[in-house]
């Protein structure tokens, strides 16, 4: 059974899946393999829908969150599709198995004024040019932190005003390079005397890591007047929300973020709706009249 998993993982490499995705499949399928071995199931052909449902219920009883259970099932479903293509099974036993819906939390975002506060504070740090450029890029380009640290200097085209980004699944996309971000990056690049092709470097003159960016931003957030924990994805969420609020164009926001599915972008419509609801309560004539009536009643 393990050999079949290894063959499947090798097929993902051939199809140019990322190492992170392949590792995720490997971990999830290893879990299914151990369950099979513990119940004397000696081949994938013996695994049936009833047994998978039983294990799924067990996951729930053990307190495994719904998102993880869905991922386990998704990995097994893709694996059985692979076995079906190779004529090793007739049917996919995962097909039709449902789990509880995931309550997706709304992304945490920063107000534009808060981002300005962070930038003002960052300009006073030891690595002010680098750290300012990082925030301008994360917010201005709505980049994932993994995309940010993978950038090389040659990824930027200052004349055409775009950044070539390597996103999820090794898919390239072109992101607009805003004026403020361009100025910040030029200042940072011009301050360097090394020949490293990486855009962002650590103090050891090595390519900055994801963990390194997380540490830098968290330190800035806590030390700044905001006094809050900051993680890189907050800038991406903020950029998406602000773009949607100003443009009201979901498709443009989707392209900007590099989402394959519009469903991934639709979460930001909820944020926009909350903002609209607040504005309605504050400014709509009817609600203002109701507030006025309540105040008069109190008098």
Automatic annotation (TrEMBL):
It comes from hydrothermal vent metagenome. One of its GO terms (molecular function) is DNA binding. Pfam families: Phage_int_SAM_1, Phage_integrase. Residues 1-84 form the Core-binding (CB) domain. PROSITE patterns: CB (PS51900), TYR_RECOMBINASE (PS51898). Residues 105-281 form the Tyr recombinase domain. Keywords: DNA integration, DNA recombination, DNA-binding. GO terms for biological process: DNA integration; DNA recombination. SUPFAM superfamilies: DNA breaking-rejoining enzymes (SSF56349). NCBIfam families: recomb_XerA_Arch (NF040815). This is Tyrosine recombinase XerC. PANTHER family: PHAGE INTEGRASE-RELATED, TYROSINE RECOMBINASE XERC.
């Amino acid at each position: 059974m393990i050999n079949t998993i290894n063959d499947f993982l090798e097929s993902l490499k051939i199809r140019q899946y990322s190492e992170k995705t392949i590792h995720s499949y490997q971990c999830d399928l290893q879990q299914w393999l151990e369950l099979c071995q513990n119940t004397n199931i000696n081949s994938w052909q013996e695994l049936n829908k009833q047994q998978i449902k039983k294990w799924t219920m067990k996951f729930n009883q053990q307190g495994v969150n719904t998102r993880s259970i869905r991922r386990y099932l998704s990995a097994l479903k893709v694996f059985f599709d692979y076995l079906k293509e190779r004529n090793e099974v007739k049917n996919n036993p995962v097909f039709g198995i449902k789990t509880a819906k995931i309550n997706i939390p709304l992304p945490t975002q920063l107000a534009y004024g808060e981002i300005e506060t962070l930038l003002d504070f960052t300009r006073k740090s030891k690595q002010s040019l680098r750290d300012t450029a990082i925030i301008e890029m994360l917010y201005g380009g709505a980049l994932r932190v993994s995309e940010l640290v993978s950038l090389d200097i040659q990824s930027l085209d200052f004349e055409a005003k775009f950044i070539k980004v390597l996103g999820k699944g090794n898919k390239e996309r072109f992101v607009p390079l805003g004026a403020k971000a361009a100025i910040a990056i030029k200042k940072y690049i011009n301050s360097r005397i090394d020949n490293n092709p990486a855009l962002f470097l650590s103090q050891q003159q090595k390519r900055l890591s994801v963990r390194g960016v997380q540490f830098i931003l968290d330190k800035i957030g806590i030390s700044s007047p905001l006094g809050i924990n900051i993680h890189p994805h907050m800038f991406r969420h903020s950029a998406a929300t602000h773009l949607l609020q100003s443009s009201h164009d979901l498709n443009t926001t989707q392209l900007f973020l590099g989402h394959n599915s519009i469903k991934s972008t639709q979460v930001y419509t909820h944020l926009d709706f909350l903002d609209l609801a607040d504005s309605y309560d504050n400014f709509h004539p009817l609600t203002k009249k109701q507030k006025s009536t309540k105040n008069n009643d109190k008098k």
